[in-house]
Structures are given as C-alpha cells and as structure tokens.
Design a protein that fits this description.
- This protein is of the alpha/beta class.
- It folds into two domains: about 160 residues, Rossmann fold; about 220 residues, Rossmann fold.
- It has 16 helices and ten strands.
- The strands form three sheets. The protein has a four-stranded parallel β-sheet with strand order 2-1-3-4, with helices on both faces. Strands 7-6-9-10 form a four-stranded parallel β-sheet, sandwiched between helices.
- Helix 1 crosses helix 8, helix 4 packs parallel to helix 5 and helix 7 runs parallel beside helix 9.
- It binds iron/sulfur cluster (SF4).
Length: about 375
C-alpha cells in the first residue's frame, strides 16, 4: 500500500511549478538556479524563493535545439527547450554558476533570449585550494552586494545565519531520509527518493522541511512495504532529474539504495559550518564540500592510488553504510565533465570489490529501453 505522503509527493513531482506559481501570485519573487553551487541561503535570507531549473526526459526538445548546440548535454537542451515554450515564465530571476561549459553557455543564452529581470553568474574556481576558497569568498561577497543592490533588501549576517540553519535542517532531514535506504529491504525505493528530491527542489525550504519530516515519520513505520532484493546499487554520474532511469535499474531486479548525483546526495550532503563571518562557511561548503567532477582536488606528489583515495574515500563509506554491491556509472551524452571521471571512479570501486556498469544515455525516457538488456545482464553477474 502506498503511504499517504508519497501520494502528495507524486502530485508535486507531476506538477512541480504549482507552488512556485502560487507564491508568485502572492507577491513573492521566484529565482531559478542551475547546479549545486548557488548558495540558496542568500535567497532565503531576503525572502526570495529558490527554484531549481530542471529539464524533462519525457518531452523531446522541439524548440531548444534551434539555439543550443546539438553537442550540448540533453539536460541543458531540455531546460532551454522548456523555457522557450514558456514553462519557466514564472521565474523572476536566474542565478547560475560556472560549473561546466554547458551551464556557462546556458546562462548566456537565457540572459539574451529570456531577459530575466535579475541574472547573475557565479565564478566558481575549478580547484579546491586555500586560494580557491579565498577567491570564491570574494565572489560570494560580490553576489551578496549585487542581490542587495538589485532587490533593495539587506542580507544581514543574522538573517544569513538563520537561513544557513534552515537549509542545514533540510540537509539533516535528507540524510535521515536516505538512512531509510540502509534497511534491507530499504524503506523507500529509488524512484520514490527521486521524486522527493525533485519535489524538494521545487518548494521553499521551510515547506521542504515540513514535507521531509512527514515522509520520514510515515515511512519509519512501514517495514515490509517493499520486497527483498539482493542487488543494492549506487548510481553515480551526471544529472538525473526524473524517475525513468532509476525505475529501469530497479525493474531489472535491484534497489537503488544510494546516489552520487546532483539532484540527490551531492546537492544535500554536507552542512554549512556556522562561522563568525557566515560567508566563510558558505565558501568552504559550496566549493570544497560539494564533490563534483567539475572541481579538481589536487594532491601533489602522491601516487595515482593515493590520489584516488584522496578523491573517492567518501564512496568507500557509502559502500559500507548502504551495503552496496554494484554501481551504475551513468553519463548523459556529451557530459565530458563526468565522462572524464568515469575511469577513475570505476577503478576505485572495482578495487573495493564493487561491480560496475557504465551507461551513456540521451537524457530521454523513450531512448532508455535499449539499455534494459545490458542492465539485466549486469544484474545477473552478482
Ligand atoms: S550533465 Fe554534465 S554537461 Fe550537463 S550540466 Fe551536468 S555537468 Fe554539465
């Protein structure tokens, strides 16, 4: 039987812009953002509503392709396509970051063609280092000034600290929700978590927290709702912002019990440390805390094996905590950022005794079916 709260999640997932449109009708400003490195705390601190820009794997692009190069990842093409059809007409502003070249191009195109009343592109260093964090802090100071100047609302340290606490609560609750996947069988399936993630990136943070608390409370008492399956899968890779790929992996006889993707744990995992100057905590968390292949982690003078340990030790923890015995490494076609990382992630996981399957897909639900045979064959190797 489906828990009541999961029906509510289905509704939000199916029409994720409903609440944002309501809030806008009440006079709130809705700010769209790309990627994991936009500090949402700034928006919350001045009562702006953050809204993650996502694409649609179910709707083939019909207009976006006129503007975005065909060798750009399907996610970016889809987002632009939806925007050109007016699906993002409720956004009052856009904040993006220089995370990958595709997102970079996307920001310029959005600003040029859709002319949002507010637009800012955050310069995020590509390397974690002392200087990188200092540079990023300066960039966040500029962003703070820019938002204050444009909206005429001061982002005080006190409001920023409160916003950090609120977003840290969301992060704690998401980690608690993911904890339900450690059970065998898990208390929540991969597609259900995917829907919760999409819903949580479509609502203001106080509403996200209320929703997450309800989900956790209701699901804690549902042991035995899901059948037992032996294969417990980690999905690592490019953005997945809809159910079909995760559903396909589970339909082939497994549970996706953990993800390392950007509409998932990568977005939520580390907290922001509350520091005397709150921007120090934000700069550290959003550059060093988010482990995404777009950011290089230098470890000079060490062997390749040491380097892999330095970069991927967190995966060892996930494998142990979530009792993972297989990993699907997926990339959206033309996502070089993740493609370059695959050989090292694969080698690291296989050294831990974890079987891996590499999949390249087209960010399209209908184009997933040919992958079924490969996933089924992979599941039979356990
Ligand atoms: S999927 Fe890859 S190319 Fe596309 S936005 Fe994400 S990192 Fe960039």
């Amino acid at each position: 039987m489906k828990a009541e709260i999961l029906k509510r999640i289905d509704e939000i997932y199916e029409k994720r812009d409903t609440r944002a449109r309501e809030l806008r009708a009440e006079g709130k400003k809705i700010i769209g953002y790309f990627c994991c490195q936009v500090p949402l705390e700034y928006l919350t601190a001045v009562d702006l509503v953050p809204y993650r820009i996502l694409g649609s794997v179910s709707e083939p692009p019909t207009q976006g392709d006129f503007y975005v190069e065909s060798v750009t990842c399907g996610y970016i093409r889809s987002c632009f396509d939806l925007a050109s059809k007016g699906r993002y007409d409720f956004l009052d502003g856009l904040i993006s970051c220089r995370s990958c070249q595709g997102i970079e191009i996307s920001f310029d195109l959005w600003r040029y063609y859709f002319r949002p009343e507010y637009a800012y592109n955050i310069d995020v260093p590509h390397k974690v280092s002392e200087w990188g964090i200092k540079f990023f802090k300066e960039e966040l100071i500029d962003l703070r000034r820019d938002i204050e100047g444009f909206y005429g609302r001061k982002i005080t340290d006190e409001a920023l600290r409160e916003a950090i606490e609120l977003h840290n609560s969301s992060r704690r609750l998401v980690r608690e929700l993911y904890g339900l996947r450690k059970e065998d069988p898990p208390l929540i399936s991969g597609p259900e978590v995917m829907k919760v993630m999409v819903a949580s990136m479509s609502l203001p943070p106080d509403e996200v927290n209320g929703l997450l608390k309800r989900i956790i409370d209701e699901l804690k008492g549902t042991k035995g709702r899901l059948e037992k399956r032996d294969n417990r899968i980690l999905v690592w890779g490019s953005i997945i912002d809809a159910v079909p790929l995760v559903q396909l992996i589970e339909d082939c006889g497994s549970y996706v019990v953990m993800d390392d993707t950007c509409v998932g744990s990568r977005f939520y995992w580390p907290d922001v440390e509350i520091t005397e100057d709150p921007i120090d905590g934000l700069a550290k968390r959003y550059l060093d805390g988010i482990v995404c292949p777009r950011t290089f982690r230098d470890n000079p003078g060490r062997s390749h094996k040491d380097d892999l340990e330095h970069r991927f030790a967190y995966l060892k923890e996930l494998v142990k905590d979530y009792k993972i015995n297989g990993a699907v490494l997926e990339i959206t076609r033309y996502c070089d950022t993740h493609g370059w990382e695959v050989p090292d992630v694969k080698s690291y996981l296989e050294d831990l005794g974890i079987q891996t399957l590499f999949l390249e897909h087209d960010y399209s639900a209908v184009a997933l079916e040919p992958l079924r045979t490969r996933i089924e064959a992979f599941m039979e190797t356990f």
